[in-house]
Structure prediction request, 174 residues.
Amino acid sequence: AVYFSPVFQSDRHGYDTRDYYTIDSRLGSNEDFTSLCDLLHEKNIRVVLDGVFHHTGRGFWAFRDVQQKGKASPYCDWFYIDWSRNSDRNDGFWYEGWEGCNDLVKLNLSNPQVVNHLFMAVEKWIRLFKIDGIRLDVAYSLSSSFLQQLRIHCNAVYQQESGTQEPFVLTGEI
Prediction:
């Protein structure tokens, strides 16, 4: 197997995702990555991607919408926001970051819209890139409910795409 650390559009280093649906332009295009994955699969090499589902970067489109529209943004509930405080970036609101790192904005995985957005991204990865697994970044921070839902979703899509009953690989430090 080949394990790819974060490959999606990000602010700087991959773990600060901007767009879960697009390969980082510094690495090529979705088409380039599809070709690479096809080549690896032709050689019976499995493909595992890094899934960064706990947090995003400040450049994530939904967070940018909150920055621009404030309380009028339909994405306010995608994050943990306190309107009575201000962030160290002077956003006009405080938000929870990953372990105190304010470059990484914590997602509200209790929000069904957030979960759906992430699951649709994973579904795209399975269908387009034919990935065989995901290594979950900061898996210890993901709820067991989210992990169970993710397992069910990934298995269903993977088994439909692959035509096997083989389980989809989910790994990470819990």
Q: What stands out?
A: The mean pLDDT is 96.
